[in-house]
Amino acid sequence: MQPAQEFGDNPVEVRETGHYTEEYVPSFVEKWDSLIDWEKRAESEGNFFIDLLRKWGVKSVLDVATGTGFHSVRLLSAGFETVSADGSAEMLAMAFENGTRQGGHILRVVQADWRWLNRDVHGEYDAIVCLGNSFTHLFSERDRRKALAEFYAMLKHDGILVLDQRNYDAILDDGYTSKHTYYYCGDDVTVEPEYVDEGLCRMRYSFPDDSVYHLNMFPLRKEYARRLMSDVGFQRIQTYGDFQHTYRGEQPDFFVHVAEKE
Ligand code: SAM
Which atom of ligand 1 is nearest to the CA of 63? Predict the structure, then answer.
């Protein structure tokens, strides 16, 4: 029997940084990976991150939210020296397997929680990437500051942090009724906010076989995220919308922050 997701009697009360390891149960992760074809995902993302890292002259990258390895594998294929970290051992096992399957890469994996990153990961990097809306797993301001300070410490003096997030301002401000359903790769997976308040965005993931999974995330506002990065010492923070260099009136679904250490 595979373990099921466990949110207890009152799922909207689950607002805890360490809970992520219980949310990514193997059946959820396997389903996600089998439905979201990596080629399609790569097509929709384009070369945004690769181009950005090249533009910055980056050679070494620490992927702190490896998950099943999508970005780590892309980075290795593009020639970056990459170390793949994640707090979930199950995710890293899957990432390692995906690495060998997709392009014969041997991933250098390290299990590490961001709050204690320097304890478990060694070295200094030109760039740290924290992608796939991962940072919103942190539920307290203390944890967010701690994680950012750990990222900052592991960068070379002129390094950059690339961190993306869902546009929670739109979800919080447009209200519950105008919630938007996000479709991934056709109708295969739908993702929608099931419950939202200033301290929680509970996302519902529905699959074509009628199975349903959830993730409880902290709804990080864009300006707040930028302020935190600047508070821990990042000198300049540029924010892009939906992998584009500019965004105007229409709301992007995602933001990408590029924070410079120097
Ligand atoms: N970047 C991958 C992608 O886009 O497919 C994975 C994204 S997944 C939404 C978030 C990942 O962040 C999970 O693999 C989870 O285990 C990891 N994670 C969440 N909180 C963490 C923490 N405090 N420390 C280390 N890893 C964490």
Answer: 1
Under 8 Å between Cβ of 260 and 226: no
Pocket test for ligand 1, best of 35, 61, 86 (most atoms within 8 A of CB): 86
DSSP-derived secondary structure for 113-125 = -GGGHHHH--S-E
Rounded Cα distance, 145 and 138, in Å: 10
Q: Please tell me which residue, 31 or 165, carries the higher pLDDT value.
A: 165
11-15, 36-40, 179-183: least confident range:
179-183
Average pLDDT of the residues of the chain: 88
Q: Could you write out the DSSP letters of every residue in 1-67?
A: -PPPP---S-GGG---GGGHHHHS-HHHHHHHHHHS-HHHHHHHHTTHHHHHHHHTT--EEEES--T
Tokens representing residue 80 in the block: 């970056």
pTM of the predicted model as reported, rounded to 2 decimal places: 0.91
Angle between helices 26-35 and 89-101 (to 10 degrees): 30
For the question of an ipTM over 0.95, the answer is yes
C-alpha separations of 155 from 50, 51, 133 in Å: 18, 19, 21
Tell me what pLDDT residue 177 has. 45
Closest to 29 in 3D by CA, of 109, 111, 74, 92? 92
Cβ–ligand 1 distance for 131 under 6 Å, the answer: yes
Run of H or E including 146: helix 141-153
d(CA 238, CA 259): 7
